[in-house]
Design goal:
It contains 4 helices and no strands. The protein is an all-alpha fold. Helix 2 packs across helix 3.
């Protein structure tokens, strides 16, 4: 069966459904992935926050493949939401979101 995923919010119930259809608990999934049950529960609760590599690893354990296809004619992609505006008195380009001094994203615990 194919599932069209158009938003990251759709991932959570789909991941849960695949896991449960295989008769797996979060603890069993975590064991297969080499992480704690709590870590896997966090991933399942917010799959949008994990890297694509980690998501693909979860899909492999579940025996699910990711297939990308072009949308049918007449459908268009939705524009990305607008970025937050700077607060008055904030230098241009600064939105108040802190990043490490190196400019890199913080490391994920896995």
């Amino acid at each position: 069966m194919h599932y069209a995923i158009k938003t990251v919010h759709q991932l959570r119930p789909i991941l849960q459904g695949f896991r449960k259809s295989r008769g797996m608990t979060q603890a069993v999934m975590a064991e297969h992935l080499g992480v704690t049950q709590q870590t896997y529960a966090e991933l399942e609760a917010n799959p949008a926050a994990v890297s694509v590599e980690r998501l693909l690893r979860v899909l492999r354990v579940l025996g699910v493949e990711l297939v990308l296809s072009q949308a049918e004619a007449g459908t268009t992609a939705q524009p990305a939401p607008a970025r937050p505006r700077a607060k008055p008195g904030t230098p241009a380009g600064k939105t108040g979101t802190a990043r490490p001094a190196t400019g890199r994203r913080p490391r994920e615990d896995w």
